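[step 3/7] inverse_fold.run input=structure_tokens len=71
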């Protein structure tokens, strides 16, 4: 189990680094939209116990909020 946790945490860190690097050429509004979608997806997953619909709904709501917050 310890090995699985280490692999999962390494994968999480690598994906976070890659996703942050992908935002370098984006506008501020695009960055805020992507960040909002990511945070919303995590929030939706946590609140609904990992349901797919909750994760997608959270990503959609977070993306809209991130997009509108930068106007």
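[step 3/7] decode complete -> sequence:
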């Amino acid at each position: 189990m310890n090995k699985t946790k280490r692999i999962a945490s390494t994968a999480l860190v690598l994906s976070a680094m890659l996703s942050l690097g992908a935002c370098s050429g984006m506008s501020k509004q695009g960055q805020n939209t992507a960040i909002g979608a990511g945070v919303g997806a995590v929030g939706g997953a946590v609140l609904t116990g990992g349901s797919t619909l909750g994760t997608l709904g959270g990503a959609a709501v977070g993306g809209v909020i991130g997009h509108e917050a930068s106007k």
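[step 4/7] annotate
The mean pLDDT is 82.
The chain is about 85% helix and 0% strand.
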